[in-house]
Amino acid sequence: MQVQDDKQLEELYRITMPKVARMAHRMNGNLDMARDILHDAIIIYLEKQQQHTLPELHAASAYITGIARILCIRQLRQKGYDLPLESVSAHIIPENYFDPPPVRPGLLQYLQSAGKRCMELLKAFYYEEQSISDIAATFRFKSLHSASVQKYKCLEKVRDHIKQSDYAETVD
Amino acid sequence: MRKQLTEIEEIDAFLLQTLRGVPLLVFRARLAVSAELRAKVRQQQQVHQVIKYLGREEQRQQLQAIHDHLMEDASFHHSITSIFQ
């Protein structure tokens, strides 16, 4: 099943949350833990969908519950429980998924506000992996070439902010 | 495109592993001798990490909104909270 729009996402949430809640409860978790794990599982699922790396014949809800189970086990292991986690299962979680923020929080906030249009454009290209023609239409570029040039200008702009931030940290 | 943007495009191809063959070998050779280019590659990699991080954060906010919306439904709310009682 492909999740195509917000309505499908809400329906998927409605049918999957009870399954993940029961599983989290069996593992001594609470509602907040179940919710956070479900959110991570859905995000991982949607990323796999965008990258076309989902195995075939997997119903979305069952697959997400499977990811949530791995995330639950991971969390319990961090709390010191001795639970096995097969290496095959561990690979379902993207590498670096739980890494801390890549830059300091102030810079993240700045990029979200002052650099909003650029971040939206870069997100469409790299995170959502939309086609360049869709992006050109959404962001009202006159041509595919202008969309592509703007993408690189935005990369340059954000990279410059990171460079300045690196420099400021070095001076501090 | 101006020279600086062409270099950004090339670094991007390197990071996304779409740079291949002779251009890849030439790029690697330039990387080996240029600390400035290595810094640019590292910073551009950070840009990609930031995009992914903010993309996930935004997705999380959207899921939280769905959660809040569904929990307003008394029947759904009960079906979830009763599991933890």
SSE map:
The complex is a heterodimer of chains A (172) and B (85).
Chain A (H helix, E strand, L loop, with lengths): L5 H21 L4 H20 L9 H19 L8 H4 L14 H9 L2 H12 L4 H7 L5 H28 L1
Helix pairs in contact in A: 1-2, 1-3, 2-3, 6-8, 7-8
Chain B lengths: L2 H13 L5 H13 L1 H37 L2 H8 L4
Task: Summarize, please.
The complex is a heterodimer of chains A (172) and B (85). By secondary structure, chain A is an all-alpha fold.
Q: Unreliable stretches of chain B, pLDDT < 50, 5 or more residues?
A: none
Report the span from N to C terminus of chain A: 51 Å
String of helices and strands of chain B: HHHH
Structural class of chain A: mainly alpha
Record field, number of beta strands of chain B: 0
Helices of chain B, by number, come to 4
The residue ranges of chain A in which pLDDT falls below 50 over 5 or more consecutive positions are none
Largest interface: A-B, 42 and 37 residues
Derived structural class of chain B:
mainly alpha
Oligomer: heterodimer
Shape of chain A: globular
Number of strands of chain A: 0
Total of domains of chain A: 2
Specify Rg of chain B, calculated over alpha carbons: 23 Å
Strand content of chain A: under 5%
Report helical residue fraction of chain A. Answer: 55-70%
Provide tags for this entry.
A: 172 residues; mainly alpha; globular; B: 85 residues; 4 helices; 84% helix; rod-shaped
Structure description:
- The complex is a heterodimer of chains A (172) and B (85).
- Chain A is mostly helical and 172 residues long.
- Chain A is 70% helix and 0% strand.
- Chain A starts with 5 loop residues before the first helix and ends with a helix.
- In chain A, helix 1 crosses helix 2, helix 2 (31-50) crosses helix 3 and helix 6 (116-127) packs across helix 8 (144-171).
- Chain A folds into two domains: 6-90, no CATH class; 105-171.
- With 85 residues, chain B is mostly helical.
- Chain B has one domain.
- Chain B has helices at residues 3-15, 21-33, 35-71, 74-81.
- In chain B, helix 1 (3-15) crosses helix 3 (35-71).
- Chain B starts with a helix and ends with a helix.
- The relative contact order of chain B is 0.07.
- At the A-B interface, helix 1, helix 2, helix 5, helix 6 and helix 8 of A face helix 1, helix 3 and helix 4 of B.
- Chain A: Pfam families: Sigma70_r2.
